Amino acid sequence: MDRSGGGMARWFRRGLGNGRPDPGAAESAPRDNAGGEKTHVTDTGAGGSPVPAHPAAGTWQEVTGSGNVTATHGAKAVTGIDNSITLNLPPEAHPPTEVPARAGLDALPFHPGLFVGRGGELEELDAALEGVGVALVQAVSGLGGIGKSTLAAHWAATRAHGHVPVRWFTADSPAGVQQGLADLAVALQPLLARVLPVEALAEWGMQWLACHTGWLVVLDNVQNPADIATLVGRARGGRFLITSRLTTGWSAAGASTVVRLDVLDPGDSLKLLTRIAVADHPGRDMSGAAGLCEELGHLPLALEQAGAYLAQNPFITPRAYRELLARQPGRMLGRRAVNTPGKRTIARIWDVTLDRVTQIQPEAAGLLRMLAWFAPDHIPTALLRAAEPGPDSQNGPDGQDGGDGAWETVGVLSAYGMLTVDPAADTVSVHRLVQAVARTPEPGHPHRTPEQIDRARRHATSRLHTVLPQDWNNPANWPLWRELLPHVDALARHAAAGTDTHTTARLLSSAGSFLNDQGTIRRAIAYLGRAHTTCLRVLGEDHPSTLTSRNNLAYAYHAAGDLERAIPLFERTVDDAVRVLGEDHPSTLSSRNNLASAYRAAGDLERAIPLFERTLQERVRVLGEDHPSTLTSRNNLAGAYESAGDLTRA
């Protein structure tokens, strides 16, 4: 329709296909004008007689606007006294009921020639789409980049499903659904594009689906089930295949089957990366490819992105890419190869998702930043329930109060696939690449400023320190220690030592002491040494925590048999403890006992025995005869006597 006079034309929807208006719609003639008078809308070139609907068109079509409107290609447009315009479609136009499906109308955006794995999921779709209904393709986490659209496109293009036509709607908004329906209408009856606006075309397409069978429509990347509810409710004769990052709400939207996607298995993951990377350079070095796949968490889009980068840079090995990823995750996951779509990068997709999530739950980004410092799998919900003690804990959006708000935030993140929940195990999990991006600072970024990242790291440290039992010697606490230790390891690995706080030092000191008692001495020394260095930097030489950390480090060296390092540390600790805490302080007595034990282990009984004797006397005086530490000193002294061959005193 061509329009002059500057007005805005609008197509007024009628009941196309049955010759009657939609329920509740005004009759096309006569009708009320602006003054309430009944009048026929007439064709000014037909002597004032009413313009009937053409039988092939099904009913009147009406648009409104100011000024004159001229229809083209045989359609008639008439301006009424209230500026309403009635459009009669040309004779060659047909209602939806009279337009059959035909070959050549399929429209898929891409056919992924490079496709690996997913055999089980393809079979699930085969079974799901045999009957009438809705099949929903989505990831377990709903995570962007897991391959939902790729699976749907591959299935639609390659399986013998027998559906005609096959149409693809980009359904991430109501406008996208409308455009998909309009495109269907034009594909079925091209002349409609010249006489109907998009709203009318969409209604025509909707009615065509409603009165035909055997079609397949892929609704890709649905953001809100409400956006497709009308379409799914009205069009019952075909099949819908829906992809979405959302993990909830689909049964209410009419989905009868949910095919849940997980990441690729390691073999398929390696195959996908290798095929892309060696396509142009078959003899290139692929060393470290399996390790890179593991680091990428076997996520298809991340593998495709890395493979394209490697293909473009044949002198960069997968091992080198992995090192770049470890140093600059935000940059590498946001980087694309030449001639690849700019928005299809992991970082971009997740930024868009997080924008949407934080509109619903503003605290979601903060919680995700905190979870990014833990191990990716089996994060106990106790870490979400913990309070925020200590000077390192700062109020702000990165913490939760442990109440219902935390669980609501978890629910929203889970619904958008940014984490997965396991209520039976009372844990949550976050994909390792989501974590890598979430803890990478970027000035000016809405979700990852350096200040936000620092605050999240402090919260994660405080949560761990609060939940971990301080009595690591008690066997009853060992299961919880073993459950939480991977998260301590992750925090220590991802946080730079120079950012450690007093709380970090206390956490690592406790973890090191537990590991030492469990016989994992090398890791214990690493944690205890880092804790001591942090105490020196943050608290100074004479702080009691610094003295304790030095004592614990010396104790671990002793356990490792490295007495050359243990004894000087013990000697310095005793001297400083006497000066700072006093001769009779329990920590001073413990340090003296430990030094005596190191002397004995070194075979220096001449220094060990007098020190044991002195420690025992002072513990009896300060702590009493029956105190556990007193009993320990008495036992140690007896052992030293025995080592000296003095069995009478032993």
What does it look like?
- A 5-stranded parallel beta sheet has the order 9-10-11-8-12, with helices on both faces. A 3-stranded antiparallel beta sheet has the order 4-7-6, with no helix packed on it.
- Among the domains are: 93 residues, no CATH class; 164 residues, P-loop containing nucleotide triphosphate hydrolases (Rossmann fold); 68 residues.
- Strand 10, helix 5 and strand 11 form a beta-alpha-beta unit.
- With 650 residues, it is α/β, with parallel strands linked by helices.
- The protein contains 24 helices and 15 strands.
- It comes from Streptomyces griseomycini.
- This is Tetratricopeptide (TPR) repeat protein.
From the structure above, extract its key features:
alpha/beta; five-stranded parallel β-sheet; Rossmann fold; 650 residues; 47% helix; elongated; single chain; three-stranded antiparallel β-sheet
Q: How do the helices and strands line up, and which of them pair or pack?
A:
Blueprint: E1 2-3, E2 31-32, E3 38-39, E4 61-64, E5 69-70, E6 76-79, E7 84-88, H1 119-128, E8 133-139, H2 148-158, E9 166-170, H3 174-188, H4 198-210, E10 216-220, H5 226-234, E11 239-244, E12 255-261, H6 266-277, H7 289-295, H8 300-312, H9 318-327, H10 329-333, H11 346-360, H12 364-371, E13 379-380, H13 382-385, H14 404-415, E14 420-422, E15 427-429, H15 432-438, H16 450-467, H17 478-494, H18 502-517, H19 521-538, H20 544-559, H21 563-580, H22 586-601, H23 605-623, H24 628-643
Parallel strand pairs: 8-11, 8-12, 9-10, 10-11
Antiparallel strand pairs: 1-5, 2-3, 4-7, 6-7, 13-15, 14-15
Helix pairs in contact: 3-4, 6-7, 6-8, 7-9, 12-16, 16-17, 16-18, 17-18, 18-19, 18-20, 19-20, 20-21, 20-22, 21-22, 22-23, 22-24, 23-24
